[in-house]
């Protein structure tokens, strides 16, 4: 399916440097014999206007990395910056404000409020932040995800794919520095999942958005410009211009039978 998206670029796209950066990011849980290292000194940049997928075996630290980069969790040591702002220097209230202003989120669960219409769900984060939607930008986003005819519908009146498109539009509506997507197609059938991935890809190519997506699906990762692989909490590899086959081959290398002494 081909998506046609009006040309525009989000505010902040002219800034220099990566949209997000991890520097020797470490996250541990527990103490003593129960201590678990979820992230082990990970350093990685996420370039502006690029679509990056983060992959790895279960327990590799990929979701923990995204949560620390998005300000949803605090690292044990190291640093995470979002839009040039060092997250560890912020208090809880400042961190909440930064997430509203600089991050958009798309999760496996759609996280829509059932009593609100699609349009009200899309604009909710802006309203919570006390900001008025940019009408022209909002129209661009709604056109991009093909929701113009469904804005008055509540979530129960929408298919799963349509609900996830509402979630994508909500993430894009504030022109964030980065859209963080955690298994965004996990609850969708293959057709609806491909459409959502197409919208995310086009938001990068046509709108200049930055997307960081955690996924276990090689076909989903192949929509990205770059795939970053984690294993045992460490940055293990990366792949540019990925194909499903190439991603699968890299993932198989992390399985026990694919490792060499």
Label this structure with key terms:
6-stranded mixed beta sheet; Rossmann fold; 8 helices; alpha/beta; 261 residues; 10 strands; 4-stranded antiparallel beta sheet
The CATH topology comes to: Rossmann fold
Question: What global shape is seen?
Answer: globular
- Whole-Å distance between the termini? 44 Å
Sheet with the most strands, sense and barrel status: 6 strands, mixed
The CATH class turns out to be Alpha Beta
Q: Count the E strands.
A: 10
Integer-rounded radius of gyration: 18 Å
How much of the sequence lies in strands comes to 15-25%
Give the second-level CATH assignment, the architecture.
Answer: 3-Layer(aba) Sandwich
Number of domains: 1
Give the uncertain stretches in residue-range form.
Answer: 1-14
Q: Can you tell me the CATH superfamily?
A: P-loop containing nucleotide triphosphate hydrolases
In percent, how helical is the residue content? 25-40%
Average pLDDT: 87
Helix and strand composition category: alpha/beta
Question: Could you please describe the fold and organization of this structure?
Answer:
It is a single chain. The chain has one domain (about 50-75, about 85-260): 3-Layer(aba) Sandwich (Rossmann fold), CATH 3.40.50.300. With about 260 residues, it is α/β, with parallel strands linked by helices. Helix 3 (about 120-130) packs parallel to helix 5 (about 160-175). The termini are far apart. The protein contains eight helices and ten strands. It has a six-stranded mixed β-sheet, sandwiched between helices. A four-stranded antiparallel β-sheet has the order 2-1-4-5. A hairpin with a 6-residue loop joins strand 1 (about 20-30) and strand 2.
